Amino acid sequence: MRFTSKDSWVTQAAVYGLFAGAVSPLVHRGLPDSPTRSYAPGEVTCPKGITNFLRTADSVSPDEAAWLKKRAPVTRKAFQEYLKRAKLKDFDVDAFFNANQDWAPKFGLAFSGGGYRAMLNGGGVLKAFDERTTDAKKHVGGILQSATYIAGLSGGSWAIGSVVVNNFTKIEDIQKRDDVWDLETSILAPEGRLAILDSISYYRDLRDEVMSKKEAGYVVTLTDYWGRAIARQILISPKDTGAPATTFSSIADTKEFKDAIMPFPIVVADARNPDETIISSNSTVFEINPLEMGSFDPTLYKFTRTKYVGTSFTDGKVDNATCMAGFDNAGFVLGTSSSLFNAGLLQLNSTGIDGTLRDLAFTILSGLSDSSSDIAAWSPNPFFSTSPLPSQPLTSDRNLTLVDGGMDLQNIPLNPLIQPVRALDTIIAADASADTSNWPNGTALYATYERSVMPQQNGTAFPEIPTVNSFVNLGLNTRPTFFGCAWNESLPQGTAQPSLIVYIPNSPYTFMSNFSTFDRKYTTEDRDAIIDNGYQVATKGEDEEWPACLACAIMHRHWQREGGQTEQCKQCMTEYCWDGKRNDTVPSEPYEPTTTKADAKKSVGFRSGVSLVGVVVGAGLSLLAVM
């Protein structure tokens, strides 16, 4: 069946559960604007004056451009205050801003994938960058308020989604709640005295939500279940239902977005056809933001309006004069970016699960294959039969399949931020990848650099990055490093200078935060310790000079264009810029860091949890087979 926007409000409210209870004033979710007030998309009136819902990716959208004009004075004021707190030497902040009336910082924040480890490390970085956090103004608080864009991928998308979908709440406030970021209990196996009954109710709710979408005529995959599950852990909603009616595009209707109080949020995923292996050189990187979804890559080079995805289009024109909305469910968007975890559903073994449950799990999963377990179906394909590329794989099929944004090794969501049309001077990249013993070693940065010299990057420049061996041998994965400091005079005419990359790797300042990407449970103590360590990562161990040097990195491109760089900033660039040296020999020993502070807490450190995820997920989903 199809729900429509004409269904009674009482019926819609009952489906959504709006009358179930109040939400704390500390944190509240985005708008429940699905026309069905449920997970299922529904019919809406097509917007007037729009005959084609596609545009070429040769610019930002008119709506994004209008938003940027609102954001510029906000970031200008926030960064002016940050500079005063950073106490740059021999630099008159007010005089600079008076002399540069039209200048505003233009930089983005990027948060890598890496499961809950990345979410919590990213949460700590966000906490440090947020001037609203207690005592954050003593360090780097205000960077979040000064940023123009914020991008997340997989676990990093959970971190930014927890903030932006919940109406730009604070990480500090999220930690105080018991209805989000509660990782004591597995996302896929509720525990306690009535564990089985809890699990039955939990999975029945997941099933009913996903089936409502299927009954509305849409293709559903494991990502739908995963998205509904992860939403329950990160999105505020009555009765902890994971905000089934809240869409990602509804962020654009919140006061925090309309008034440009928050940075512009972007979630990254990759396109992948079934049975296809993607790497950085052949992947098509998609971005999903509150206004649009699409790709700057030459294999598509198109965008469409996020709100109306789920509508059947042919070459951007609506089929049958019927528009749909509600497809871009916030949990589904975040689940798409993190669909790597779907694969765990099929990795069942007998450890911890009895034969009956295991057999039931295989029964319900029997129609699924390993090759398609990680796919999210964005169908009908909004780019179907797109001119002038109707024969491209991405446009010739009615189904568009997207996967985890880190599947092509570009585990930091840099692609949307390095686009020349966005003209960012600086990108601050928080990397919590699991490259070596669950610590990063620069693989994500290097993958984006490799792609930058290939046709798929469409001529977008990116700084030179050393190999992963050099990263480890030179210790670049243990401290902040700036890449692309020098002005590149050798770029082809018309090619924009690359953004300067401020690389901030997860490193053990106060806690061994290298938990496995697939760990599904964390004690509250460990959760908060990882967040606290992320805070230390962002503040460089509360280094007193770091706030000024970070400011210097943000202003570096301006000074290269206009002159006026201070001696202090020159010293900062000397200290933090990669000097081009390399050591590509294979490290003689595995990378095993130690904490840098004497009062560091200990965790269990490296863990392996892939099969455990499969066990838990399989046990839970098997319950659906008997409902």
TrEMBL record:
The chain crosses the membrane at residues 604-626. It catalyses: a 1-acyl-sn-glycero-3-phosphocholine + H2O = sn-glycerol 3-phosphocholine + a fatty acid + H(+). One of its GO terms (molecular function) is phosphatidylcholine lysophospholipase activity. It is an enzyme of class 3 (hydrolase). Its EC number is 3.1.1.5. It comes from the Eukaryota. Keywords: Glycoprotein, Hydrolase, Lipid degradation, Lipid metabolism, Membrane, Signal, Transmembrane, Transmembrane helix. Pfam families: PLA2_B. One of its GO terms (biological process) is glycerophospholipid catabolic process. Gene3D superfamilies: Cytosolic phospholipase A2 catalytic domain (3.40.1090.10). One of its GO terms (cellular component) is cytosol. InterPro entries: Acyl_Trfase/lysoPLipase, LysoPLipase_cat_dom. Residues 45-583 form the PLA2c domain. Belongs to the lysophospholipase family. PANTHER family: CYTOSOLIC PHOSPHOLIPASE A2, LYSOPHOSPHOLIPASE 1-RELATED. This is Lysophospholipase.
